[in-house]
Amino acid sequence: MASLRPRGSSVFSGLVLIFIGLLLLLHNYRGFDLTGIILHWWPLILIFWGAIKIYERTSGARGSQPGASRITSGEVFLVLALLAVVGIVIGVDQARQHVPGIFDNFDVPGEAFASSIDVAPKTVPANARITVRGGRGDITVRASDEPEIRVSGKVNVKSWSEGAAKKVSERVSAEIVQNGDGYEVRPTGSGGNSRVSVDLDITVPKKALLAIHSEKGDVTVSDMASQVNIDNGNGDIEVRGTAGDVSVDMRRGDAKISDTKGDVKISGHGGSVEVVNAGGSFTINGEFVGPVRAERVTKGVRFVSHRTDLTLTQLSGHMETGSGNLDVVDAPGNLILRTRDEDITIENAGGKINIDDRNSNIQLRFSAPPKDDIQITNASAPITLTLPESSSFEILADCHSGEIDSEFESDSLKLTKSESGDSHLEGKYGRGRGPKIILRTTYGSISIHKTS
């Protein structure tokens, strides 16, 4: 009689696959806390494994198959592989919680389905303190003369079918709640599900104090008469037509602020930044890949990054920095700049100038004679200064291991060169007393030209 084939252990393998698969499915579609379950209940897999082995041994003994309960290398590999998969999922979840935006460039699979939401208006004081808290989704806030908050919006669900998306969206909405002396607008029912985003369109009183906190999505604010604070994790920001101060803290995305009457402050990290027609000052502190552009800022610009420290007390023209270049045009106030590895071009500065740069070109050009002192220090790069012929100035220029070339000639201007290759220019030019110009560089040239 032919010997019977021993029973395999596919029962355990199949049940483990079903169990882990169900956990992962619940995690993806129901917001199931996989991390807590695995960390606390993983020994159940060993208990489950042992129970199956006892069952197989008992049934194998009845059928004269004593090897049926053997733990195979395939089963061990399967358990380890599944635990590794679960570990990766848990690791991704933990990274999302502790490093916001780290996986925002990875799209969730499935087709997008949208449904609308509408919330009953709520009457509030005209100067109410209003906070908007958004998770995933765009936020748009508009000002109104009516003393109430109105909220409408759209729920976006990514799913494999419209029916499944509808079931999820039916649980998602938004609410207006009172928190002490303030009011809060926030989505409800999304539960942090990465497949769900809620776009909010909000109307608030014009004089309300507005604060917006968003994890992912674009933020747009317009026509507010009071202070606006925005904290956004990932998304573009646009603010226009505000009368109060604007404060923005961002971590990824672009920012555009226009037609404001108060001060503008931007901090954090991001892409491009643009501030146009600001009645107050503009302060930017952080690392932005650029370009960073400011235009017509009444009370000046303060820009601080890991390699640049710039102060402009007034800006009637524009300032732009990015890709290793910094340009300033028509700044009637004082200019103080410390930077490195950044080519600098300054046109028509009107106040005192103090520049300290390294390893990059510096160019200054004046269409009218300068009236205030100029001091420029550079290293391993040239300095070029262009002035009208009618200018009057006192100059002291030193160039270590380089040439000085000047188109201005006067009996009181003396240009000398040492045997070691250093150049020195000192003296006065023009009528009357003009500003003092100090130029210093090493291993580069100094060129002084007349405006053509």
Number of helices: 5
Q: What's the N-to-C terminus distance?
A: 111 Å
Give the strand tally: 33
Average pLDDT across residues?
A: 87
Major sheet details: 17 strands, mixed
**Global Rg:** 34 Å
- Main structural class: alpha/beta
Shape annotation: elongated
Which residues sit in consecutive blocks of at least 5 with pLDDT less than 50? 1-9
Portion in helices: 10-25%
- Name the beta content range: over 45%
If you had to describe this structure to a student in words, what would you say it looks like?
With about 450 residues, the protein is an alpha/beta fold. The chain is built from five helices and 33 strands. Helices cover about 20% and strands about 45% of the residues. The strands form two sheets. It has a 17-stranded mixed beta sheet, with no helix packed on it. Strands 1-4-7-3-9-11-13-15-17-20-21-23-25-27-33-29 form a 16-stranded mixed beta sheet. β5 (about 175-180) and β6 (about 180-190) form a beta hairpin. The longest helix has 26 residues, at about 75-100.
